[in-house]
Amino acid sequence: MTKRLSFLILLFLAITTTSTAQSTIPSPKSALGFNPGDDRTVAGWSQITDYFERLDRASDRVLVQTLGQSTLKRPLIVAFISARENILALPKYKEIQQQLADPRKITQNHDRLLANGKVVVAISCSIHSTEIVASQMSMQLAYELATAQDADTREILQNTILLLIPSPNPDGIDIVANWYRKTLGTPYEGKEPPELYHHYAGHDDNRDWFMLNLKETQLVTRLLWHDWFPQIVYDVHQQGSNGSRFFIPPFYDPPNPNISPLLLRQVGLIGHKVAADLQAAGFKGVLTNALYDTWWHGGFRTAPYFHNSIGILSEAASARLMSPATVTTEQLARSSTRGMRNAVESSTNFPDPWAAGQWRPRDIMAMEMISARSILEMASKFRVEYLRNFYELGRANIEGNKVDPQAYLIPAGQGRDEAVAKLVGSLVDQGVEVYRLDRELHAILATPILRRTNPVAEKLGSYRRLANLTSSQMQEVPLGSYIIFLAQPQRTNVLALFEPQIYPNRLTGQGEAERPYDVAGWTLPLQMGVEAPVVMAIREPAGERKLTLLKDTNEVRADLALALKKGDESPIKNPVKQPVRVGIYKGWTGNMDEGWTRYIFDTFNVPYTSVRDADMRHGALSSKFDALIFTSQAATQIINGNGVGTMPQDYTGGITEAGVKNLKEFVNNGGMLICFDNACDMAIKEFNLPLKNTLEGIRSSEFYCPGSIVALDVDNKHPIASTLPSSVPAYFINSSAYTAASDANVRVIARYAKDNVLLSGWLLGEDKLSGQIALAEMSVGKGRIVLFGFRPQHRGQAWATLPFIWNALSTAASNTSEE
Ligand SMILES: [Zn+2]
Question: What is the pLDDT of residue 568?
């Protein structure tokens, strides 16, 4: 049989099986016993994956793949949905996408790719698991696309390939679904669970898209930015219950200066199409141009901007998980955000306010379904334009401009191999091209420069850190260094990760700081304590350089001789010098700082035990622990926990006064208490320490520093700082700074730098921070208390300050072993 003949037979079989299969495609209701979105119903993760498996078997428009396992070992899946002939030819379309994403790979005329390609759209649901409706909606969306026979749907399926991710956080779907079922019909129905809905990150699972600490972000990043390069990414969220019914872009200010204006325009165009379609369908309360901005990096829908793709966010008003909510006019009137005075008055960006009343999961689902459909329609109707713009942005990034430097460098021989390996590994994992120098080069280097695209903002900005570029000289760059050229499709991503961020000085009419949506600064090499100078010029012409392109993370680690076995879960050696019994306090309020602390301890293989409220109340802490860590959390939350009556009784109460008493006994007996940021307030008050947080209660017109990187002056004669340099970048997020009432017993380990304290982000009122205590140690009884004013392990990103924690624990061990 000729190949051609067998292909025709296969095609015939495919067609005949299709026509019978269409009638037997199971509806979500037939599989689940309820319609997705029905009041007081929820499908857990195995129900969702079972349904998608059934669709895969029954429909030739649907192909389901397992990307890998989540943190708690659930399958993370994606459903490819398109016309049958596209599904049969997925490898061909993947190849086209990879060529459009990197025009250097195109050998033929690119017009042919534009003519033949499909717009790839990724839709991701419920990364935030309490925003659960979209995960249920995903089944209905898939079913309708799999079964519809109308001309419009067929056109969408012809022109697009949908990558539908029912949830990028499978563990969280079950955490929330199990909790919801457990509390259904009780006074706590519809309340959020008393734990993080991601094992480590909770809500911060959507702050990990450049660091890639979590399994889930690693798996989805591989799908999106190694394999498929979607032109459009739609991330489906929910917001609070009492404001607008639905937010859709355009976004609010400020935009990130590294995002292409063309992308911002395309984001706006799609957003307005969604808003208009919702209006036409009779939905009220749709808001644009408010609250959410494009400044921050690291979100599911912000990562696409740095891969030349369009990122869309929607935020539907929440019900009470899967139970209806009642919203009053008074609540709507009190709801106010950047860009929206309240949710009852109409305005150009909010022309049709919703009247108060019942709000149900079904309302959320209906709006999300229209939104998804609307985006797919746009992708289909303007197929060639989306492909062309995507291609052109990649091409322009490779060609570059006269303003940008040539490259960033990570010089060999700077020590801190783990941090270098992690940084380079994160870059490689998100598809950034990184080369290793296999022969020395000669280059002009400079410290990172700030690029301002808005001279007015520059004038208003309180800080300018422009490198003096003329003073650099040609110097030798050692073998084994890593170099990241800007001439690559991800130019803007490299700039956004390596440059210091200078957030524009945005004040309200009353002179108060206007809060950014998320953090103001994140410069990755700074956070990680890795030197990464700018390469202004290279002496050797391209032909005389010896460079190797890194292929994967394992290669990077092997490179740095970290003695790893391939596939090791956590390859880093425990940095704590002595065996030490560590307890990390874990309440019932779902504290992300606690989760990230566990993440870091697990990554570095430092053993610990989670200490619950009941353990604190029970006491005998000295017999179990040498050191106790309280991560950033308000003192009232630690002591009182969830209020009585707000949660089932097992989850209320905090450590109570009994726990405080036991904590005092623990320290007096020789234990070490370590507190991060907000938790220091508890220690200062309960132990009557001679420190005062000088930033407590201060108005934002006097001092403001949201998520930024600041410089510390470090006394590295102190054992807790012994392995650190004298100047260290630290993460400050509305954090703390101290003065000492008496110096007698306060050993200052680090102060916020006297000069140039801001390294990246936004800082108003520098004088309130400069020179204040950032890290100190005090003796109490036979024990010690160590207070961190900043976040030494912020989001698993602040590797620069991790050694403070390891050193403190090393000294805790030596303390008890002497006894
Ligand atoms: Zn969300």
Answer: 52
Cα three-residue angle 643-646-650, rounded to 5 degrees: 80
Structure tokens at 545: 């350089």
Residue 467 scores a pLDDT above 50: no
* Centre of ligand 1 from the C-alpha of residue 237, in Å: 4
- pLDDT band at 217; cut points 50, 70, 90: very high
Percent of the chain surpassing pLDDT 70: 91
The DSSP H or E segment spanning 171 is helix 170-183
**Torsion sign, CA atoms 637, 170, 246, 321:** negative
Upstream peptide bond of 250 is cis (omega within 30 degrees of 0): yes
First to last CA, the chain: 85
728, with CB counted inside 10 A (0-12, 13-18, 19+), is buried
Q: Which pair of structure tokens corresponds to residue 445?
A: 């280097």
Tens of pLDDT along 75-100? Answer: 999 999 999 999 999 999 999 999 99
Strands 75-81 and 160-165, how do they pair? antiparallel
| Look-up of token digits 């495609």 | 25
458 Cβ neighbours under 8 A, 6+ residues apart? 452, 464, 502
Environment class of 327 (CB within 10 Å of its CB; exposed 0-12, middle 13-18, buried 19+):
buried
In terms of DSSP H, where are the helices of 352-503?
361-381, 383-399, 417-429, 455-460, 491-498
Phi-psi domain of 475 (left: phi exceeds 0; alpha: psi -120 through 50; beta: other): beta
* Torsion angles phi and psi, residue 208, rounded to 5: -115, 15
Query: Which structure tokens are listed for 45?
Result: 């993760």
Q: Which residue has the tokens 């599989």?
A: 31
In this structure, is the dihedral angle defined by the CA atoms of residues 100, 106, 111 and 114, taken in order, positive or negative? Answer: negative
Could you tell me the distance, in angstroms and rounded to a whole number, from the CA of residue 20 to the centre of ligand 1? 40
Calculate how far, in angstroms, residue 353's C-alpha sits from the geometric centre of ligand 1: 22
Gap between the Cα atoms of 688 and 690, Å rounded: 7
Q: Which of 242, 332, 339 is nearest to 293 (CA)?
A: 339
- Separation of alpha carbons 561 and 579, rounded Å: 25
CA–CA distance, 438 with 425 (Å, rounded to integer): 18
**What pLDDT does 21 receive?**
46
DSSP state of 767: G
Q: What pLDDT does residue 570 have?
A: 60
- Local confidence band at 818 (pLDDT 50, 70, 90 cut-offs): very low
Residue 601 alpha carbon to ligand 1 centre in Å: 26
pLDDT at 37 over 60: yes
Q: How far is the CA of 239 from the centre of ligand 1 (A)?
A: 7
Binned at pLDDT 50, 70 and 90, residue 400 comes out as: confident
* Cis status, amide bond into 254, omega within 30 of 0: yes
Which residues keep their CB under 5 angstroms from ion ligand 1?
128, 131, 237
Count the alpha carbons within 13 Å of 661 in the hemisphere toward its beta carbon.
6
Distance, CA 67 to ligand 1 centroid (Å)?
22
Task: Show Cβ contacts of residue 149 under 8 Å, excluding neighbours closer than 6 positions.
Answer: 22
Integer-rounded Cα Rg, in Å, for the chain is: 27
What is the full DSSP assignment across 533-572? -EEEEESS-GGG--EEE---HHHHHHHTT----TT-SS-P
d(Cα 248, Cα 237) in Å, to the nearest integer? 10
Q: How far is the CA of 494 from the centre of ligand 1 (A)?
A: 26
Instruction: Give the distance (Å) from ligand 1 centre to CA of residue 649.
Output: 28
Other residues' Cβ atoms within 10 Å of the Cβ of residue 695: 21
Q: Report the predicted TM-score, pTM, of the whole model to 2 decimal places.
A: 0.94
Structure tokens at 762: 């936004």
The reported pLDDT for the residue numbered 560 is 54
